[in-house]
Amino acid sequence: MIEVKDLHVSYGEFLAVKGVSFTVNEGELVTIIGANGAGKSTILMALMGLRSCRKGQILFDQTDITTLPAHLRARQGMAIVPEGRRLLPDLTVEENLRIGGYIHTDQAIVTEELERNFTLFPRLKERARQISKTLSGGEQQMLAIARALMSKPKLLLMDEVSLGLMPKFVDETFRIIAELHQKGVTILLVEQNAKKALAVADRGYVLETGHIIHSATARELLNNSEVKKAYLGGV
Ligand SMILES: Nc1ncnc2c1ncn2[C@@H]1O[C@H](COP(=O)(O)OP(=O)(O)OP(=O)(O)O)[C@@H](O)[C@H]1O
């Protein structure tokens, strides 16, 4: 579904992503793990068209989207759950969700997607008219995921969705990710919580200072002694 070839992304003169290549196939849950500052968020931003590539190529459904603006990537079927959620804090839960469905010209589809997300996240249904900044951190994270799903994406990009959540909500978030995967959503998950990410993923890539240093099935990475030592707390 997505093929990234020799991706380079920079901030001014600083090269944050240094020639990264990877794929995500339809229906897969793939994770990119790595330490702070490895370049994980930068890769997702470049995939969504929120940062331009200095060099390299991004193919989505076999079409070259390397220079396509973000809103057109959304129309082609990509959605992002950004780091820090980026909700519209003064709008209600339902209003945030409707904004997530803005690409649908048919309002019946928006209503259908709203119902689908309320079924997936009953807590959001209960709180449909609540102003989103008054939600708990975990609920805000649910809303950010649901908002991305409103566009019915073919590919869901998720950036550090467990960051800053209490353990209870971290488990709940990973349960939802696994459920979405089971339902057939293709997911690229960027995570610092390597253990949890690899537990739900099919395959993974390990990113270190802008380079991919390992690529394998999630199971292989979980059993790789180097990965264990560096990212899984030596377990
Ligand atoms: N707007 C920016 N301007 C300059 N440098 C940046 C900017 N955003 C990120 N960087 C740098 O790019 C590198 C990669 O950052 P990025 O946020 O992609 O890493 P990350 O792997 O997602 O880290 P984290 O897990 O801490 O979010 C870091 O060295 C960071 O300081």
UniProtKB/TrEMBL annotation:
* Lineage: superkingdom: Bacteria
Q: Which UniProt keywords apply?
A: Amino-acid transport, ATP-binding, Nucleotide-binding, Transport
Record GO terms (molecular function): ATP binding; ATP hydrolysis activity; branched-chain amino acid transmembrane transporter activity
Write down the InterPro entries for this protein, in alphabetical order: AAA+_ATPase, ABC_transporter-like_ATP-bd, ABC_transporter-like_CS, BCAA_Transport_ATP-bd_LivF, P-loop_NTPase
Question: Could you tell me which PROSITE patterns the record lists for this protein?
Answer: ABC_TRANSPORTER_1, ABC_TRANSPORTER_2
Q: Which residues cross the membrane?
A: none
One Gene Ontology term from the biological process aspect of the record: L-amino acid transport
Chain ranges of the ABC transporter domain: 2-234
State the PANTHER family in the record: HIGH-AFFINITY BRANCHED-CHAIN AMINO ACID TRANSPORT ATP-BINDING PROTEIN LIVF
Describe the family membership recorded for this protein in Swiss-Prot or TrEMBL. Belongs to the ABC transporter superfamily.
What is the name of the protein in this document? Answer: ABC transporter domain-containing protein
